[in-house]
Amino acid sequence: MTRPFSGRKDGLSLSEALPDRSLFALVAMMGFLAALTVAGASGARALSARWSGGAAQLLTIQVPDAANPLDPQAGGTRVQAVMADLSSLPEGTQIHQLTAPELAHLLEPWLGETDSSALPLPAIIRVRLPPDATIPATLEPALNAHVPGTIVEHNARWGERLRALANSLLACAGLALLSVGGIATMITGLATRTGLATRKDIIKTLHGLGASDSYIAGRFAWRPATLGLGGGLTGTLVACPPLLLLLQMAAPFASTPQTAPEQILPPDWPALAQAMPSDMLGALALLPFGAAFICWLTTQIMVRLWLLRLP
């Protein structure tokens, strides 16, 4: 004995009742916006983690009057005394004193290409600690006590600012995703109401003949879910080329300082696709299914509520 109203051709004619083209296009646009939002949030988080992680291990030390002797009797300059004190840092620490050309290049954006030999510039020492090491709390007081006037700049403060920026961007991305999901819910709800109004008499007849609420809601929810899946997949695929372009533009910020600009250009699209963060790829892969679930759940709720009001 076959079940009543089984099969796909149940007389509801949902392909005519539900505006498939408009729903598909609107969900595709929502999927496009959601993909860009997810990618922006993931990229901001990844860059912040990279920058803040590197900045936490960096120190910049300025030594005024570096060439002056620290102790005329013992000999040795002030910068040599600081370098000797820094030798007690953990093993694996990289210590580099900027040369005159490097210092001139560093000041070029502010002073231009000028001869800075006559300027009383301090010596700049760049310190990079190992990944598992921490900055000693007594380093700055010890340097100031031994070599007065030494300035220690903790780059970890920039890491805290970058983390705060990433958190704010993630919050904005979350609000944007909620807005996109809300708009998709409203669009699906309007399409469902239109379909219910168009097939009102048929649904009443089928319901009176014994069709269950779950059957009718399932038949209605199946088509919006399919359209949501296709629209979300289309929007995500359309967003991939702009995402790769944005990833190419952000590549210099994610590269190491030793990487030359000519090594980043021209774009290598396969390499860029492989360089996409795994969490971003996972989120993009889940977007079509999320769109389908939103359409399915919205339709299920609206149809069941509508059926409850039937006499």
Chain-wise SSE layout:
Layout: H1 14-17, H2 20-55, E1 58-63, H3 78-86, E2 94-97, H4 100-111, E3 123-128, H5 139-146, E4 151-154, H6 156-198, H7 200-208, H8 213-254, H9 269-275, H10 278-308
Antiparallel strand pairs: 1-3, 1-4, 2-3
What does this protein look like?
With about 300 residues, this protein is of the alpha+beta class. Helices cover about 65% and strands about 5% of the residues. It is built from 10 helices and 4 strands. The protein has helices at about 15, 20-55, 80-85, 100-110, 140-145, 155-200, 200-210, 215-255, 270-275, 280-310, and strands at about 60-65, 95, 125-130, 150-155. Strands 2-3-1-4 form a 4-stranded antiparallel sheet. Helix 2 (about 20-55) packs antiparallel against helix 10 (about 280-310) and helix 6 (about 155-200) runs parallel beside helix 10. It is rod-shaped and about 110 Å long. The two termini are about 30 Å apart.
Structural class: alpha+beta
Share of helix among residues?
55-70%
Count of distinct strands: 4
Please give the largest β-sheet.
4 strands, antiparallel
Low-confidence stretches: 1-11, 255-265
Coarse morphology: rod-shaped
Return the string of H and E elements: HHEHEHEHEHHHHH
**How far is it from the N-terminal to the C-terminal residue, by CA?**
29 Å
Number of helices: 10
Global Rg: 32 Å
Spatial strand order of the main sheet: 2-3-1-4
Can you give the mean pLDDT? 76
Strand content: 5-15%
